[in-house]
Amino acid sequence: MNVRDLEPADRARQLPPVIQGGMGVGVSSWRLARQVANNGGLGVISGVASDLLVARWLQDGDLEGHVRAAMAEYPDQDYVAATLKRFFRPAGREPGAPFRPIPRLDHHQRLDAVRLAVLGAFVQVRMAKQGHDNPVGINLLEKIQLWTPATLYGAMLAGVDAVLVGAGLPTHIPRLLDDYANGRPVSLPIDVAGSESSDELVISLTPHEVVPPAPQTLPRPVFLAIISSHILGAYLARDDSTRPDGFVVEGPTAGGHNAPPRRMELDESGEPIYGERDVVDLDKLAKVGLPYWLAGGQASPKHVVAARAAGAQGVQIGTVFALCHESGLSEPLRTALRVSLDAGTAEVRTDPRASPTGFPFKVVQMAGTVADPAVSTKRERICDLGYLRTPYRRDDGTIGQRCPAEPIDAYVRKGGVVEDTEGRKCLCNGLMSSAGVPQIRPDGGAEPPLLTLGQDLEAVHALLEMFPDGWSAADVMQWLLSDLDASGATGSSG
To answer: How far apart (Å, rounded) are the C-alpha atoms in residues 224 and 16?
Structure first.
């Protein structure tokens, strides 16, 4: 039987024992996801800012032609031609030249912005699936709601096998996937600050309006909810409309965004304190009856074996993949980070203030990045990418957009509280810079990078001993799976 003929929860149990994390803007690149998938894992691309990444890759010349090859498979070739005319520069940009801006997606859901978001997700998934039939997933942040319908549709058009969603409560994702699979329009309620009802703002996407030759049906991917609490897992599984097909259970040492502790207290260094109440009760989660993977401090062959022996399907791992040759981190930055980690000069902190989302966020403390006070104090506050903006209700009843990392006066003028701006970092610009396509300012300067990794670096040091000049995704996968066959450990059958 073809795996796609199984029910989604049964297909989830067929996924590999190692899931590569969906890291940052472009760090979980299509190259990385493809190599992980080809070496026995679930390769995962980041679904954040796919529209912007694809537009910038085209402006940098798409030197190997991968973006245009994926675009050639898109159903709406008229739109592809228009996009190439708008963004593709065969010779690339002149040094120091700014990127051409893309249409900005907001609560109005302008058609040109929606179409580019759909195309961006399609292109990334198609590139990750080039030349093989192994599973590939896409990772989304629930907090970035305005892009969710378009990103999911583009990924499903490209045949994505799994959708992973974290940083929020992804109650609407199963319904969206079901509707798209059956060719139906979708709608998504959007959180609006200052509104009393969650149904005051609803965005919609009708497939045939966005992609004129839209297929009537699409393969329905597996949905894995990223959670940090067995209570949340039970809550999501209580009803067919919200039930995922499995879970990724993320601990507080994992990179990127983390769930806040049940009780927000900070230690002497200003980091959140996680205690026993923040540990997931896996016995209670297992009773929910859905497969799950463990994330955060799980990067070693022994952890893969132990997770499966304990009833999990396997593990999700990010940090060691972020440092792979194929990751989307710019090569000079990746090399500098690896050297700093080897020398012990790069610390990873859980910053409770950095992310505009309000979630704690792992930030690498390294010179030359946004975490460096000498860099951050010189950076002008600006919000010109806007993926983490929040819709809010104005006094006149209309809806605006604001971000606590934008200029303070602008945020307060929009009804925000000045205390919310303290310590905020522009993740959008910082992560885009880390991916090698930074925003260029009028003076020709580039936005500084912002780096995130997990706090458990034991696996990094183990790999540095084996591969002092760096490693590939294949090296990591071979290492992670090295003890699995001999152990005979198997995951839960649900």
So the answer is: 13
* 329, 286 contact by CB (below 8 A): no
pLDDT at 493: 40
Q: What is the pLDDT of residues 148-165, one digit of tens each?
A: 999 999 999 999 999 999
Cβ atoms of residues 48 and 144 within 8 Å: yes
Q: Is 62 left (phi over 0), alpha (psi -120 to 50) or beta?
A: left
The neighbouring-strand residues paired with 227 are: 249
Q: Among candidates 425, 420, 439, which has minimal Cα distance to 388?
A: 425
Amino acid identity of residue 483, one-letter, is D
Start-to-end Cα distance in the chain: 20
How far is CA 245 from each of CA 98, 168, 257, rounded to the nearest angstrom?
A: 43, 17, 22
Give the chain's domains with CATH numbers: 3-328+468-487 (3.20.20.70)
Q: Would you tell me how many other CB atoms lie within 10 Å of the CB of residue 50?
A: 29
pLDDT of residue 1: 44
Non-local (6+) Cβ contacts of 7 within 8 A are: none
Question: Tokens 């059958």 label which residue?
Answer: 493
Tens of pLDDT, residue by residue over 341-355, are 999 888 999 999 999
Cβ-contact 207, 180 below 8 angstroms: yes
**Residue range 122-147, pLDDT digits in tens:** 999 999 999 999 999 999 999 999 99
Dist CA 152 CA 163 (whole Å): 8
Give the residue ranges of the chain where pLDDT is below 70.
Answer: 1-5, 196-199, 485-494
Q: Supply φ then ψ for residue 402, to 5 degrees.
A: -145, 160
| pTM assigned to the model | 0.94
C-alpha 20, offset from chain centre: 11
CA distances from 458 to 133, 307, 335, 419, 452 (A): 33, 17, 18, 36, 16
Write 195-203 long-range contacts (CB < 8 A, 24+). Answer: 195/393, 200/393, 201/107, 201/391, 201/399, 203/107, 203/109, 203/145, 203/146, 203/149
* Beta pairing class for 162-166 and 222-227: parallel
Q: What is the DSSP string of 91-140?
A: T-PPTTPPPPPPPPP-TT--HHHHHHHHHHHHHHHHHHTTT--S-EEEEE
List the one residue out of 201, 318, 191 whose CA is nearest residue 253.
318
Q: How far apart are CA 392 and CA 380, in angstroms?
A: 24
- Across the strands, what pairs with 45? 138
